[in-house]
């Protein structure tokens, strides 16, 4: 079961690594916003600008942050010591042909991205290791596809964990539960749902316009 909430706060809850990690997320949003100012016409609607910022920030998050997670999954490792009890997240036996190695950010040492993922792993320990578990109607269709993929990804991230009683999740304090687990993950639920609603409405409007032309 997930760790029961308590009023005590971890002493490293707001350490330097944590603050830098959170600022890196804000930096991605700022870059996406700056790009919207550079590439979108000044007359663009607020909705269009938001969609641009969301998808660019989403792409940067996947390529930079989650890309670094994949890098450590495949290239960062340390020897598995069978006779010592550690807090390392276990690597599936036979991963990449090895059963005597521990892979993931937990083996990334001082690498900044490894440290970033170790901060997040305080709330969800699976991220410390290897876890095997969008005004043109055409644009709206692709935004629906991408948003659906985001929802599916979120489902596949947490549903298997819920089925085993959330053994890897730590909900013992506000930061882990409401910031790391709830806020950062439900962003990829509520916004994709809104994007699907917006895109369906946009496609419906386009179909209504086409139907109106046929009746003229």
Report on this model:
This protein is mostly helical. The protein is 61% helix and 3% strand. The chain contains five helices and two strands, in the order H-H-E-E-H-H-H. Helix 1 crosses helix 2 and helix 4 packs antiparallel against helix 5. It starts with 15 loop residues before the first helix and ends with a helix.
Q: How would you describe the shape?
A: elongated
Approximate helicity band = 55-70%
Strand adjacency order, main sheet:
1-2
What is the number of helices?
A: 5
Features:
mainly alpha, two-stranded antiparallel ribbon
Secondary-structure map with pairings?
Elements: H1 16-39, H2 46-75, E1 77-79, E2 101-103, H3 112-120, H4 137-163, H5 174-215
Antiparallel strand pairs: 1-2
Helix pairs in contact: 1-2, 4-5
Summarize the structure.
It is a multi-pass membrane protein. With 216 residues, the protein is mainly α.
């Amino acid at each position: 079961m997930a760790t029961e909430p308590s009023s005590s706060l971890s002493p490293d809850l707001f350490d330097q690594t944590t603050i830098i990690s959170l600022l890196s997320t804000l930096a991605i949003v700022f870059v996406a916003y700056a790009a919207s100012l550079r590439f979108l016409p000044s007359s663009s609607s607020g909705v269009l600008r938001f969609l641009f910022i969301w998808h660019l920030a989403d792409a940067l998050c996947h390529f930079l942050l989650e890309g670094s997670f994949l890098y450590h999954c495949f290239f960062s490792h340390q020897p598995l010591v069978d006779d010592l009890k550690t807090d390392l997240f276990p690597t599936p036996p036979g991963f990449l042909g090895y059963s005597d190695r521990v892979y993931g950010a937990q083996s990334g040492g001082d690498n900044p991205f490894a440290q970033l993922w170790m901060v997040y792993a305080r709330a969800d320990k699976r991220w410390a290791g290897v876890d095997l578990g969008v005004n043109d109607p055409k644009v709206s269709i692709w935004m629906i596809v991408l948003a659906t993929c985001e929802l599916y990804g979120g489902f596949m991230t947490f549903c298997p964990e819920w089925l085993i009683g959330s053994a890897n999740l730590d909900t013992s304090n506000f930061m882990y539960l409401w910031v790391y687990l709830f806020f950062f993950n439900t962003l990829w639920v509520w916004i994709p749902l809104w994007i699907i609603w917006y895109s369906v409405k946009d496609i419906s409007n386009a179909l209504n316009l086409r139907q109106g032309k046929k009746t003229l």
